[in-house]
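Quick start: read one record
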Amino acid sequence: MSVAETSLNASLFSRLAMLLRPDWTRTVLARRIAAAGLVVLAGVAALRSNTEVDGSQVVVATRDLRPGSALTYDDVRLEKRSAATLPAGSQSDLGAVVGSTLAGPARRGEVLTDVRILGSRLAESTAGPGARIVPLHLADSALIDLVRVGDVVDVLAAPATDSPAAASISKVVATDAVVVLVSAKQELQSHDDRVVLVVLPARLANTVAGAVLGQTVTLTLH
């Protein structure tokens, strides 16, 4: 056999060997791609599973709500939300919320918490354990429209009389009260029907509630 024939045969055998031998590089790459795909699918499945497991039914507003609103079943509904996104104090019982008074404005879809509703939780979160909510009827209707939820005010009282001298004997009955609700102005509603609710420590709240009876009440804003 000549040298040329030997070379030709060697080349032929080499090409046949290449065709019959698997391409290990491509095989390993394919395995890695498949493994990565399985990891991604497992992650998606786990995420969906966790969302379903961790989801909780909570009370949300069905529309924009004004402060002072007495909540009805038309104002709220239950929605399932991820537990990881829920604020502390989220409400899960429609019956416990309906009939309550909303302390501040709420947007449609907003989760309602215990401090958005008038009650002991709101008072304690504002002024500490044992705090109380005191309603005040202000003498000046213009002042009612200026006061906002969250304002810190001092409460002053004076004898209810038309005498100009009454203003000079007014006295401060509470300081650092926090406004938690200003009743909204309604059509055909008189000034006397509107109130400002403030939060004070328990002992001071009871004193103020008694001190303002039959008195002309006003506020100074900090």
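The radius of gyration is 36 Å.
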